[in-house]
Design goal:
This protein is of the alpha+beta class and 456 residues long. 52% of the residues lie in helices and 18% in strands. It folds into two domains: 203 residues, no CATH class; 172 residues, Multidrug efflux transporter AcrB transmembrane domain (Multidrug efflux transporter AcrB transmembrane fold, Up-down Bundle). Helix 9 packs antiparallel against helix 12. It starts with a helix and ends with a strand.
Length: 456
């Protein structure tokens, strides 16, 4: 009765895993509208962010010089700060954008999946300086400039009239916060005249209409909220981006620009998918030919591995799939299959030397653990080093390789182990179904008895 119950549980486990795998395949490939909502689910595979070489887009390179109002004389530090600010400016709207420093004085910006390059060039091609003054006639002196600002974000808050409006939250630097507190103290303490701060973008000029910020008290804490007259969130976002573009410590001089068509990358991706599918089928066929039912279980684990890989590639926000990244995926799949082969070859060796199938499986997994762990951990260290020190393309390879190696270890040491464990109650003696070799000798447990005599 107990044996029958164990077999029944194994069958139920396989049914559950098969259903979950089918659901995972469906979610990976197909798009659909989520029931009772207006949300469109596009599938794991279609949600993966593609790099410039696969999706096309624009690439620009700027040369950097210290800005006239820069708060530092160190160009190296100014460029690093500008890279961080550009990531805020561009990443707010284009999460797939890549901004990297190139050489001593250059910054490269790549934005995939963009068809209208003008919107990017308008945003970053001519950064807009920001000035805060106490006059609205274009004759005042700047009291706060863009480099006094640390960060800018869009928010939805109540204004002075207790109305909920879209606005821009401005976070100042430490020095900028002190300057802003002194400025607002001066403005709010005026006995007569206007108690307003005027914000100019571009330049202080009578031809520019500034944004007016009412100031009735000293504003401390190093931050403020600009409500403006924004009717939509998009308008507030545009203004926030303009402010952030005025916080650069360097002037950006355009050196080169190019628009990359996605044709080459799309073909490479298509052929890679076709090759991957054909390769997976061949691998599964070879696994079955060599290991029988165990090969079928390994194929099921491999399908689960691919589903998990697609899920994590689209779930991790900073992952961007590139051509080198595809190479990392292929390499990690090869190492996953290599781990499977190591395990089952150990099982075959144990069975050939006379052990029964359950004990061969247990010993085979145990003997395979350290070779798999050692080989994968060295690859993980290599991927981490490449991720930290490599250029953008090398980082694309490293991140997919790192994800793939971690998943391959999970597949071989956890998923495959459970699948094989559930199989043993269904077949623990029929070695031909597992394509196991004939045993060289029958295993006999040795027992030491009194007098030193050994009975086999």
């Amino acid at each position: 009765m107990a044996r029958s119950r164990i077999k029944h549980n194994s069958i139920l486990n396989y049914i559950a895993v098969s259903v979950i795998t089918l659901i995972g395949l469906f979610l990976s490939v197909f798009s659909f509208t989520i029931p009772f909502t207006q949300t469109q689910f596009v599938g794991f595979a279609n949600s993966i962010s593609l790099g410039l070489d696969l999706a096309g887009g624009i690439s620009v390179v700027y040369n950097c010089d210290l800005a006239a109002d820069s708060n530092t004389s160190n160009l190296d530090n100014a460029i690093n700060a500008t890279v961080a600010r550009l990531e805020s400016v561009i990443g707010e709207k284009y999460s797939e954008a890549t901004i990297v420093r190139q050489g001593a004085t250059r910054i490269r910006i790549e934005v995939p999946s963009v068809t209208d390059a003008d919107e990017i060039f308008d945003l970053i091609g001519e950064p807009t300086p920001l000035y805060m003054t106490d006059t609205d006639d274009g004759t005042g002196t700047a009291r706060i400039v863009g480099t006094d600002i640390e960060d800018v974000n869009v928010s939805y808050q109540q204004n002075d009239e207790q109305e909920w409006v879209y606005g821009v939250s401005v976070q100042f630097t430490r020095d900028g916060g002190k300057k802003f507190a002194d400025f607002t103290s001066e403005i709010s303490s005026k006995a007569s005249g206007s108690q307003y701060i005027y914000i100019y973008l571009g330049e202080i000029s009578p031809t520019i209409t500034p944004l007016r910020l009412e100031c009735k008290q000293t504003i401390t804490g190093g931050a403020t909220f600009i409500s403006g007259n924004f009717e939509t969130r998009d308008q507030a976002e545009d203004y926030a981006l303009q402010i952030m573009s005025g916080t650069f410590n360097v002037s950006l001089n355009l050196l080169e620009q190019s628009q990359i068509e996605p044709t080459l990358g799309a073909n490479a991706l298509k052929y890679c998918i076709i090759g991957g599918i054909v390769g997976m089928i061949l691998i599964m066929a070879l696994l079955w030919w060599r290991y029988g039912d165990f090969g079928l279980l390994a194929s099921l684990a491999l399908v689960m591995y691919v589903i998990l890989m697609l899920f994590f590639l689209q779930a991790i926000s900073f992952v961007q799939l590139t051509l080198p990244g595809l190479a990392g995926i292929v390499l990690s799949i090869g190492m996953a299959v290599d781990g499977t082969v190591i395990i089952f070859e150990r099982v075959r060796e144990e069975y050939k030397n006379g052990k029964k199938i359950p004990l061969s499986v247990k010993t085979g997994f145990k003997r395979a653990f350290w070779p798999i762990f050692d080989s994968n951990i060295t690859t993980i260290f290599t991927a981490v080093v490449l991720l930290i020190l490599g250029t953008a393309s090398i980082q694309g390879f490293a991140i997919t390789l790192l994800i793939g190696i971690l998943l391959s270890m999970f597949m071989n040491l956890v998923i495959l182990r459970f699948l094989v464990k559930w199989y043993l109650p269904l077949n623990s003696v029929k070695y031909k179904k597992l394509h196991l070799p004939k045993q060289v000798r029958q295993f006999k447990e040795e027992i030491v008895v009194e007098g030193g005599q050994v009975n086999g």
